[in-house]
């Protein structure tokens, strides 16, 4: 039986990395600087979404989640910039499930390049 959130086309992923990624570096990785990858962090795990620049780069629908840990916004299904932060302690049970589902979704599509410092 196929698992949940499988991508339509198979994705070849690299082994997950455990590198520590500083918040300062992460903040540069929002698609506004050509030399940096585009990164989204969920629950402290950093995913490389550079290959989806149209979606995550400047002007893209989900640009708000880049360059940071956006757990709270993903859990609350919110695109508000003020919700795109790492503190998911205020999420209710169904929002936590949504957040965990996004983690699964990202982990099936995007390489894990490290962990956010302090996470
Ligand atoms: C009018 C409301 C919305 C519509 C019509 C919409 C539509 C879509 C569509 C068509 C996709 C592509 C699905 C796929 O590739 O299989 C998508 C992906 C996604 N949506 Fe939405 N969405 C909406 C609202 C939201 C909200 C409020 C959030 C906040 C969490 C959100 C977060 C995402 C994320 C993170 C992805 C994954 C993008 C990727 O990496 O491929 N969406 N959405």
TrEMBL record:
Residues of the Cytochrome b5 heme-binding domain: 21-117
UniProt GO molecular function: heme binding
Domain of life: Eukaryota
Gene Ontology terms: cellular component: endoplasmic reticulum; membrane
UniProt family annotation: Belongs to the cytochrome b5 family. MAPR subfamily.
Designated name of the protein: Cytochrome b5 heme-binding domain-containing protein
Organism of provenance: Dactylellina haptotyla (strain CBS 200.50)
């Amino acid at each position: 039986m196929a698992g949940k959130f499988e991508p339509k086309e198979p994705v070849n992923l690299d082994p997950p990395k455990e590198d520590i990624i500083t918040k300062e570096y992460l903040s540069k990785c929002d698609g506004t600087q050509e030399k940096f990858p585009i990164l989204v962090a969920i629950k402290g795990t950093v995913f490389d979404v550079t290959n989806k620049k149209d979606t995550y780069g400047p002007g893209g629908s989900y640009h708000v989640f880049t360059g940071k840990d956006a757990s709270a916004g993903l859990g609350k299904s919110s695109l508000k910039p003020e919700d795109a932060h790492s503190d998911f302690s205020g999420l209710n049970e169904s929002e936590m499930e949504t957040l965990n589902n996004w983690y699964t979704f990202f982990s099936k599509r995007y390489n894990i390049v490290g962990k956010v410092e302090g996470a």
